[in-house]
Write a structure and sequence with these properties.
Layout (H helix, E strand, L loop, with lengths): L10 H19 L4 H7 L5 H12 L3 H6 L3
Helix pairs in contact: 2-3
Length: about 70
């Protein structure tokens, strides 16, 4: 059974969005590699991080970072 919060997001989706938000902050404020950031925000693999980041934000982490450089 999936537990859904008041906003209509399942717990796992809410957690993933929070981790993507944290990754966005790190992409904006650090020079850490995208792979390192994915690990820091607890994604199982670089591919999982890249796929989820793009699904949530509409752009890759590399493209997102370039908007702040």
């Amino acid at each position: 059974m999936t537990v859904v919060n008041a906003a209509g997001l399942a717990g796992g989706h809410r957690d993933a969005r929070a981790r993507i938000h944290q990754a966005q902050h790190l992409l904006e404020t650090t020079d850490h590699t995208v792979e390192r950031i994915g690990t820091q925000v607890r994604f199982a693999s670089p591919t999982a991080f890249l796929d989820r980041f793009k699904r949530v934000t509409g752009v890759s982490p590399h493209t997102y970072r370039r908007t702040f450089r």
